[in-house]
Design a protein that fits this description.
The protein contains 24 helices and 24 strands. It has about 675 residues and is of the alpha+beta class. It starts with a helix and ends with a helix. The structure holds 2-(butylsulfanyl)adenosine.
């Protein structure tokens, strides 16, 4: 295909995909099948790869992410990003209305909207194209998380509406829909990683991920609730919302113009009912004076606008009896207290367990046996006890104190300085720790020994065939054949017999053998070092490149690695200070596991920039100029010192000479930022 023909087709595909994206993610009314959509996308990606000169950071192909942001640049908001005053009762809201009436002395209208429970974001558009997405930060400046924002499919990257302003900013809330949240936590659970407590935390955590392709998988969404621009052509907030909707933004349909406070109360009552059915979290209703002129007249207090307020819903509470406290021991030995409650109905589901988090939180509640307690099911997935009704407690009531010994192996518990968790130090013989570690080790994201499910590992442990992860590699056919056990399915209560027949044994031994090829970074994760999740295991593996170098690292070496804090450094050192761990590691090494990064760097590097010439100019934020040049030549590109009609691209940093820019522009040579250059490569 000729370049010009390709350009036309690329543009057509981009337009088409943008339309389908809008129909699917904003309107929820797709008009083509997923398969047809994927085909169009595949064609676009193919053409963009063959014709990198038509690279566009706002192409729909960019939504799958892939850009890695090492640290998010801090940028100043064009318009400060304020928050709202809160009210918790209808009385307080009536007070607000009185203040508005007194301030305006004429008729006014309100607009009521939902208060989305996520992360506030400011999105800037320049020349009808998405330019930047910035978090609230301190309200004056926030983090530029643009690469991550682009993965949110309901946010338009190009505005095609004829009447849209070319340059403006919108404000909205990035949130994680319930479906995405449940999916994410399920995955985390399968990998024995800490769960997110609620969708808001998950959304905030996702926006701060460095790898945008990971963010793309989180399936975030965004509602827009405000428009800002110099010289807005609208007189009211309501008109702006309608315009935003027409321009392709996702604006929530639950909104209402109210001519007095009673209509506001009606909306609140309606939304309290709707809330349970929504596929995302809200925590209240926002009430705004509609006319911009009246907003200006009311102005601001030192913290909040006087023309808007939020009404917060009450968290749903239950009142019930505390029967007992149980203690669960996790794979790292952490002991978690769990309250056993008399069953109580909260927000539509029966609750009989509540989290007590740790000894400190438990002590704060001053729990006694048979206490009446208030249980809340707020945004959190696990209900929690928020208050004890001490007035109802008989004098004879017995206090509940945190246990001193492990409920599974009776070893005295310990606590690390500065940490809230009590843990059982008996890593070698405490049964749930052994089982938990082995299950983590064989899990899919770790060593992926999938033919050994939970029931089977338990059987092997009971029969003393394995006691630690290294024992797996000593297993022989004769150890396994014929083992048999009856287990009860915890969900259905049905009994099931598992027995190791020839095929089962072959599968297990094959999966164990295959795990020896698992790359070092996953082995690092599989070891189950406290506080070391998948991402950090990968980071450490890449940084130190071998387990020996990691073992030799000093505390300072460890904390000098990006995102490694004192807690994690301490737990890594503790792990390697334990002689038992060293013995296990030696056995794993002998078994043939990967304990270093394979040196295959130079072989697999792409040549995506071959036949292209580059002129590099200016100062860059993530690279030195020499590093940019090295990056280009490594990927097959050629560096030239001056711009000519033969130059394919100019890579421009800050302070690029104006003459150079003029020349590039006059010759129609694309000017790339460092991020755009990275986008062509990675
Ligand atoms: S308007 C000056 N509208 O609530 C007006 N905010 O405490 C600023 N929020 O940081 C905000 N839903 O993250 C507005 N419909 C809505 C909202 C909303 C959620 C969040 C927003 C803001 C916080 C205000």
């Amino acid at each position: 295909m000729k370049a010009l023909e390709a350009k036309d087709r690329i543009e057509k595909l981009r337009d088409e995909l943008n339309v389908h994206n809008y129909k699917y993610y904003v309107l929820a009314q797709p008009t083509i099948s997923d398969l047809e959509y994927d085909k169009l996308m595949e064609e676009l990606v193919g053409l963009e790869q063959s014709f990198p000169e038509y690279y566009d950071p706002n192409s729909p192909s960019q939504r799958v992410g892939g850009e890695v942001t090492k640290s998010f640049p801090n940028v100043r908001h064009t318009y400060p990003m304020l928050s709202l005053g809160n009210t918790y009762s209808k009385e307080e809201l009536t007070e607000f209305d009185k203040r508005v009436a007194k301030g305006l002395k004429t008729n006014y209208e309100y607009v009521c909207e939902l208060k989305f429970d996520g992360v506030a974001i400011g999105l800037s558009y320049e020349n009808h194209r998405f330019a930047r997405g910035v978090t609230r930060g301190d309200g004056v400046q926030g983090d530029d998380v643009s690469n991550n924002i682009k993965t949110i499919r309901s946010i338009p990257l190009v505005i095609n509406h004829k009447e849209a302003l070319p340059t403006f900013e919108v404000r909205g809330e990035v949130f994680m829909p319930h479906k995405s949240f449940l999916h994410l936590n399920k995955q985390k659970e399968a990998q024995s990683e800490a769960l997110f407590a609620n969708p808001r935390n998950a959304a905030a955590g996702s926006l701060k991920l460095q790898d945008s392709s990971q963010v793309a998988k989180r399936r975030l969404d965004c509602y827009i609730y405000g428009l800002l621009s110099d010289g807005l052509p609208f007189k009211t907030h309501w008109e702006s919302l309608e315009a935003l909707q027409n321009w392709g933004f996702k604006v929530c349909k639950y909104r209402k113009k109210c001519s007095d406070i009673n209509e506001v109360f009606d909306f609140i009552n309606e939304m309290e009912m709707v809330r349970a059915r929504l596929p995302f979290d809200i925590d209240g209703v926002v009430i705004k004076v509609n006319a911009y002129a009246q907003q200006t007249a009311l102005g601001y207090t030192s913290k909040f606008p006087r023309w808007a307020i939020s009404y917060k819903f009450k968290a749903e509470r239950g009142y019930t009896r505390l029967l007992d406290v149980l203690y669960q021991v996790g794979r790292t030995g952490a002991v978690t207290p769990v309250a056993v409650l008399e069953p109580v109905l909260i927000a539509g589901s029966t609750v009989q367990r509540a989290s007590l988090y740790n000894a400190g939180k438990m002590a704060e509640l001053d729990l006694h046996y048979n206490d009446m307690v208030y249980v809340e099911k707020g945004g959190d997935i696990i209900p929690k006890i928020v208050e004890t009704d001490a007035a109802k407690r008989p004098d004879s009531a017995r206090a509940i104190n945190f246990i001193t010994h492990c409920p599974e192996c009776n070893t005295p518990l310990r606590k690390k300085e500065g940490e809230a968790v009590n843990y059982c130090p008996n890593t070698s013989t405490c049964p749930p720790q052994i089982q938990g570690r082995i299950e983590h080790f064989i899990s899919r994201r770790a060593m992926d020994i999938d033919s050994l499910g939970q029931g089977k590992t338990e059987l092997l442990i009971r029969n003393k065939k394995i006691n630690n992860i290294a024992d797996l590699y000593d297993l022989r056919y004769d150890d396994l054949i014929g083992l048999e056990k009856v287990i009860t399915d915890p969900d259905t209560g049905k009994q099931r017999k598992i027995s190791f027949r020839d095929k089962t044994v072959q599968n297990i031994l094959q999966a164990i053998e295959a795990s020896k090829k698992v790359p070092f970074e996953r082995v690092m994760y599989a070891l189950g070092i406290r506080h070391l999740g998948e991402t950090m295991a990968k980071k450490l593996a890449r940084h130190f490149e071998s387990i020996d170098r990691l073992m030799d690292a000093t505390f300072d070496d460890l904390i000098s690695v990006d995102e490694v804090g004192e807690k994690m450094a301490g737990s890594i050192q503790d792990y390697f200070d334990n002689f038992e761990h060293i013995q296990i590691l030696e056995r794993l090494r002998k078994a043939g596991l990967n304990f270093s990064v394979e040196k295959e760097r130079d072989s697999g590097v792409s040549k995506v920039l071959s036949n292209k010439s580059f002129v590099v100019s200016g100062v860059f934020s993530n690279y030195s100029r020499d590093e940019i040049k090295a990056l280009i030549t490594e990927h097959g590109g050629e560096i030239k010192s001056s711009i000519s009609s033969k130059t394919s691209f100019v890579v421009a940093g800050d302070q690029m000479g104006p003459e150079k820019r003029k020349k590039a522009e006059s010759l129609n040579i694309p000017i790339l930022t460092e991020e755009e250059l990275e986008g062509m490569i990675y």
